[in-house]
Amino acid sequence: MTQDDAEAARARRLVHGQVCYLQMPAVDSTRAAAFYQAVFGWQTEHPYQDFESPGLIGQWVRERPPAPDAGPMIWIHVADLDDTLERVVKHGGEIIDPPSPDGPTRMLATIVDPEGNPVGLASHSTLDG
Predict the structure, then answer these.
(1) Run of H or E residues at 86
(2) What pairs with residue 43 in β-bridges?
(3) Suppose 84 and one of 29, 78, 106, 125 were both cysteines; which one would form an S-S bond, judging by CB atoms 3.0 to 4.6 Å apart?
(4) 79 Cβ neighbours under 8 A, 6+ residues apart
């Protein structure tokens, strides 16, 4: 299957209202790519600024500054919140809000990536185990 065929197949799976493309501010796209690949497993096309995450494609852009206190915020599901937070710090991110419960089966935390973008983390599981 060619890349064009793969893109066409992906487009056919999109539903009305689904978020399908994301532009993330990044002064240093190489640093951003390394962070998101190490922490979340996103794939990056080198030397381009494009990335692919589960269910979403996008790119890092220089012309849009991070907005830590304004605008929409991306929330990423993670399988193990504690492990993810360790990787965030190890790869240059910062924990802003430590894990806290949000209902009976969800834990939330907030980080800032190395480019200054706030990112929410959500882990869905039972809180007692």
Answers:
(1) helix 81-90
(2) 52
(3) 78
(4) 123
- Residues 53, 64 contacting (CB under 8 angstroms): no
Tens-place pLDDT, residues 17-65: 778 899 999 999 999 999 999 999 999 887 778 999 988 899 999 999 9
Q: What angle do CA 119, 43, 24 make, to 5 degrees?
A: 35
Residue 6 has a CB neighbour count (10 Å cut-off) of 10
DSSP 3-state helix, strand, coil percentages of the chain (rounded to 5)?
25, 35, 40
Q: Edge-to-edge, what's the strand order for the sheet holding 50-53?
A: 21-25, 56-61, 50-53, 43-44
d(CA 24, CA 107): 24
Architecture (CATH level 2) of domain 3-124: Roll (3.10)
The domain spans of the chain are 3-124
Q: What is the pTM of this model?
A: 0.83
At which residue do the structure tokens 């492990």 appear? 83
